[in-house]
TrEMBL record:
Xref: SUPFAM superfamilies: Creatinase/aminopeptidase, Creatinase/prolidase N-terminal domain
Alphabetized Gene3D superfamilies for the sequence: Creatinase/methionine aminopeptidase superfamily, Creatinase/prolidase N-terminal domain
Names of the cofactor(s): Mn(2+)
Keywords in alphabetical order: Aminopeptidase, Hydrolase, Manganese, Metal-binding, Metalloprotease, Protease
GO cellular component: cytoplasm
Entries under Pfam families matching the protein: Creatinase_N (PF01321), Creatinase_N_2 (PF16189), Peptidase_M24 (PF00557), Peptidase_M24_C (PF16188)
Molecular function terms from GO: aminopeptidase activity; metal ion binding; metallopeptidase activity
Primary enzyme class: hydrolase
UniProt protein name: Xaa-Pro aminopeptidase
GO biological process terms held by the UniProt record: proteolysis
Enzyme Commission number(s) of this protein: 3.4.11.9
Amino acid sequence: MLPEVKLVFLQSSSKGLALITMKEALLWTDGRYFLQATQQLSNHWKLMRMGEDPPVEAWIADNLEDEAVIGINPWCISVDSAQRYEHAFSKKHQTLFQLSSDLVDEVWKDRPPVEPRPVIVHPVEFAGRSVSEKIKELREKLVHEKASAIIITALDEVAWLYNIRGSDVDYSPVVHSYAIVTLHNAFFYVDKRKVTVEVQKYMSGNGIDIREYETVQSDASLLATGKLKSSVDGENDINDNEVGSLKIWIDSGSCCLALYSKLSPDQVLALQSPIALPKAVKNSTELDGLRKAHIRDGAAVVQYLAWLDNQMQENYGASGYFSEIKGAHKKENIKGTKLTEVSVSDKLEGFRSTKEHFRGLSFPTISSVGPNAAVIHYKPEASTCSEMDADKIYLCDSGAQYLDGTTDITRTVHFGKPSEHEKSCYTAVLKGHIALDIAVFPNGTTGHSLDILSRAPLWREGLDYRHGTGHGIGSYLNVHEGPHLISFRPSARNVPLQASMTVTDEPGYYEDGSFGIRLENVLICKEANAKFNFGEKGYLSFEHITWAPYQAKLIDTKLLTPVEIEWVNTYHSDCRNILEPYLNEQEKEWLRNATEPIAVSS
C-alpha cells in the first residue's frame, strides 16, 4: 500500500532517465543525445543535460517537498543507483518507494505482446571455452572471496557464462534471463517456452537447473535463508548452521534493487562481477573469430562504399568519392532512383547478409547526411529521413553480429567538394584516431588516461566531442561491453586495460545544424614490443582489426606529420591486401584507387 503522500515516478534506462512529478516531466540524458532530445522532446518535457545540469538525485532533493515519496520500478534500478538516491534524499526525509507494478506498463495500453524466441546453444568452436570450465573458474572465485553464491543479472554475463545466445533484445544476441550459481549448483531463470529439447539436454548435461523466469525473486529469498535446492541433485549448498555466515555476491552496478531487497544487507558481498573481466579479456578463439569477422565485415563496407559512389554519380551527378571537381549536380534522379539515408543503409545490410556467419546488425545503422550527422546517435526513419546529398558530408556508423564476432565501424565521406573547414575538422579527427591507435602505455593504465590522446589534436583547434572515445565490444554479444572504456568520464578510471581486451577508437567532431564527423575502428589490446621495460611493468599497445579506407580527399595532408602519413599509407596497403580476395574486379579497382598512397600537399 502506498503512503499517503504525493508520488513522484522515476524510471531509468541505459540512454536516459525520466522523472515525472505532479507538475513536471524531466528527462536526463548524456551528451550523445542532447541534440536528438531537443529535436524529439515535446514541449511537455524539460531536457536535463548530464554533466551540465544537476543530477536527478540532487534535483529531487532540492526541488521536491520534505517527505516526498519517489516511486521506482525496482527491476529497473540498480543497487548503486538506489543507494545513491537514498543518501541524497535523506536530508529532507524523502523516500524511495518500490512499486509493485510498472506505471509505464499501466499507461502503455497498446504495447505489443512479447513473442517467445528460442534459446540457442553457442558452440565451443566459437566460444573457445566450455560452460563447465567457466563455472569451475567462477566457483574458484567464490571460494577465494568466501562467498557461497552469486546472483547474475546482466544479460550478456548470463549468455557468456552458459554459452547461450538468443534474440530477446534487438541487435544483441541475449536472452531475458537470470542466473544463480552456488558452490555446487547452477540455476538458469528463463521463460521455459524458449527452451528446446536440445537446450534442455545441454543444460542438464552441464548440471544447470532450468527454472521459470518469474521464480528468481522467490529463489533469491530461499538462497538468503540457505533453502535453495536444485532439482538436479536435490541438495542444499549449506546447512542451517552456516546461514548466518552466508555471503552472496552481487554486482551492485548491475544487480536490480528487486533482488537485492530479498537479501539481508550483512550477507551481501558487493563487488564487481567476477564474470565481467573474463568476458572482456578474450580468449584466443574469440580473438581469431573477431579478426575474421572484421575482415568479412570490412569487405561488405567496401562493397557498399563502391556501390554508393557509383549511385551518387549516376543519380545525382556527384563528382564522386575520388574527385573534388563539382559535377553537373542535382540531376534530379536521372534514373528515377531516390537515395535516402534508410534505403542506402538497407543496401549495406544486404551486403553484410551475404557474409559467412551473419546473424543480423549489432545496432541500428547511423546513416546520416549533413546536419543529421551532427546528431551523435541519429536513427533515420523511412518516413522522415533525408535524401542523400552530394554537397554534404555523409557519416555511416554501423556494425553486425556474426557467430564468430561483433563489429562496429564508422566512416565519414563526401561525394562532392568538401569545404576547407570540413577537411580541417576531418583531419583533426583522423589525427586523434591515429594517436590512440599507435599508443604504447604501461600495464595498469586506464582508459581515462588514454582518452586525452584522441582529444588533443581537436583541442589544439578549439574542437571537442561529447562522447567517450572507446568502448569494449563483445564476441557475438553486446556491441557495447564493459567494464573498461576509454573516456573522460570518471568510471573510465575503474578498470585498467589488459592484453586481449577489445576496445573501439572513435573520436569525432559535430557541428550542430551543419555536419558531423566520426572515424571508428575496433582495436585489440596486446603486449607491446617496447625497447625497454621501465619498472618491470610490461607495456601494451593496440592492433587494429577493422578494415575500410579513409577518404583521401577529406584529408588535409599539410596537417599530418610524416608518422601519420606513413600510418595511413601502411593501413591502406594492408586494407587492400586483406580485402581484395573478398571482392569482384570492379570492387577491387575501386579499393585500389581508395587506398592509393597519400603525400604531403605542395
